[in-house]
Amino acid sequence: MVTSLKKSVPSTREKVVKNTAEDLTLANHGQKMADRLQIAKLPPVEVGYVRQMELKPGKLYEVKTVAMNPEIFLIPEFLSSDECDRLKALATENGLIKSKTVYKSNIKGGGGTDNTSLYTKETLRLFDQDNNNFLNVSETYRALSKIEGVVSLSQSSFNYMFDEILDFNSDRELDQVEIQKLTKMTTKVEKWIKRYKSGDVKPNEAKRRRMGPPRLSRQAWLERKVYDKDRELTNRLIALTGLHSDIITTSENMQVVYYTPGGHYHAHHDSSDLDLNLPCEHTRQLYPKESHNNIKEIRLCRFITVLYYLDDTEEGGETAFPVADNDTYTMVDYQKDGRAVNPYDLSNYCKDANLIIKPRKGLAVMWYNHHINNTTGMLGEHNLFSLHGGCDVLKGEKWIANNWIALDENHDMQIKFHRKQLYGGNKARTGKSSSKEQVESGNENYVDTVKETKSDCNSRQEVVVSHPDATRVPL
């Protein structure tokens, strides 16, 4: 079923755009763009339901429902082995960097200037043996070895202290901000050592150490024109999601993530709660300059996540949904089988998750992070049951990739975003430009998206349904 599209309820953010942005009146061509914002969900039917869908001309793919809340689907062999290998090679070639948590990407932007202090530079010069501009645990040990009591600590004891008082963001390395704080840590380190040796350590102080850093992996970002020049993957996503190509082609770049043993990503949400006072990350640059300068925080507006496994993992590395299909969502005194568990801690409680998916090369996992607003037909409330993460890799390596389908619940802002991305400006065009004109203006997607066709929401190809009850799902 396709939810009808209506204008969003006016908000503070919407009023700012209407009063200052250029040409937001939806004329003939603009209305056709608005029609392309229709969104719908693939009906899950029930857990275990299997349908076959033609996601590629002449090829059927199995799509299996594995959860109802959120709606989660598995699509085996969505990527071919060659496609998986190519994405891994592109990510390696592009350069894998240390992953940050989704929460860090939500916070204030900053700088571009080199504010590294002389102390930090000298500390890195002396102790950063692998020259990556971070200090790992052993490098930090050498940097602090002259402080009284440090050399008497065992390796495990020093690790304990490192986690408790030095590694503020729990990523098992000291960045330049944390290194600068070392100048004021001598007394704190000495006091901690005395307290530790006397046995005066409270049990809850070990919590962060046991749970480990929120995220431990490396990643690369790939542009669509690099990883999908022939649009094969893009067209598959359009067929799977039923969304218009405008939405798919203007969504985020692909993220490729690489994990080694011990690597994980504790349970988190890919998207944020609706907040009319904060802009979506993908549309924030479209706000008027005077208001954009005051934007210090943003939020993620990801309607759908599509995760791909690029290789088998020898042991561990499962994707876990701790509260999928749970009756309630509460993190207070969370119980599983009569035991208190921490659903965020996938290093220790991976097997307690309600749904666990083992990595399998080529397998795609699709789920919805938001409901649909039945009034506006746009992005609705955040579905908190979409909490998920990656369990520890125990043996071998883990490679995944993510496509996030982004939507702003503000109807006019999403249209403006599409205009800018697809047509290179804010004004609606009433005629079609030549492909040469669009290529010259850098809009490679224009030729594919400007065709006046019926919304892809109505053209999802479901060919065969395979299920114990063998009933067809109306779309």
Automatic annotation (TrEMBL):
SMART domains: P4Hc. Residues 250-407 form the Fe2OG dioxygenase domain. GO terms for molecular function: iron ion binding; L-ascorbic acid binding; procollagen-proline 4-dioxygenase activity. It comes from the Eukaryota. Its cofactor is L-ascorbate. GO terms for cellular component: endoplasmic reticulum. Keywords: Dioxygenase, Iron, Membrane, Metal-binding, Oxidoreductase, Transmembrane, Vitamin C. Residues 426-445 are annotated as: Disordered. This is Putative transmembrane prolyl 4-hydroxylase. It comes from Stichopus japonicus (Sea cucumber). The lineage of its organism: Eukaryota, Metazoa, Echinodermata, Eleutherozoa, Echinozoa.
